[in-house]
Amino acid sequence: MTFLALHGFTQRGSMWSEVAALVGGEWLTPDLPGHGSEPACRWGKAVEGIAARLAGAAAPRWVVGYSMGGRLALAAALAHPALVDCLVLVSAGPGLATAAERRRRGARDRVLARHMEEAGMSAFVEEWLARPLFSGLGGRPAEWRAADAAARASNEAAGVAAALRRLGQGAQPYLGDRLGKLPMPVLLIAGEADAAYAATARRLADGIARATVVEVPAAGHAVVGERPGEVAAALVAWLTG
To answer: Residues 18, 11: contact at Cβ < 8 Å?
Structure first.
């Protein structure tokens, strides 16, 4: 069994290390375009890069994606369903439904990307993690939080900014009108305290033939970092259920 796990914006593939150790199996945790040493690229090329990794992996193949990685995982499963035996989306959505929403989001993302380049990665990460969206990470030990911030800051600002411009929700196509084409089982995980994404998970499940929703109690958007044990338990329970 192979897990291809895709990380969130500003992160690295190592974000999955705790969950992988608890679940077991073979985990492939690449850095996504614009992160680590991976050059940034446009949405379609990023999706095909994920498909290429899957094509070379041993079956059965599970694709697990968090946040930005979840949007890419969903796109890859829709584009190449024969390569995905099971799909797991964590704190992830299908993108923005209208062209007007995507234009507005793209404009905001370009401003944010420019700020990142001007501020530098370390300062940007400090600002980014101070957002209410990530407040749940405050429950982890100080050593863990320092290592998480350092991993994010190890990215190059120019690369992550380019990823935001090219892979952000302003740049990706809307995927919510194609959910009925997913033939594989889909597990949707969200933090119970992350009201927007918990609602998104339930809404996505309504359009997917073989969907299961798990809401992790007392967890927010960064549920993988906040509650790795509960995320791993949800994966194992679904795997063996």
So the answer is: no
Q: Which residue has the tokens 């980014």?
A: 128
Please give the tally of structural domains in the chain: 1
DSSP β-bridge partners for residue 87: 63, 186
Closest by alpha carbon to 85, among 166, 127, 25, 22? 25
Q: Are 32 and 6 in contact (CB under 8 A)?
A: yes
Give the count of beta carbons closer than 10 Å to the beta carbon of residue 180: 9
Per-residue pLDDT of 174-218, as tens digits, reads 999 999 999 999 999 999 999 999 999 999 999 999 999 999 999
> The domain that contains 93 carries what CATH number?
3.40.50.1820
What is the pLDDT at residue 11? Answer: 98
Tell the residue number behind the tokens 């959910």, with chain if given: 179
Give how far the C-alpha of residue 184 lies from the chain's centroid of Cα atoms, to the nearest Å: 19
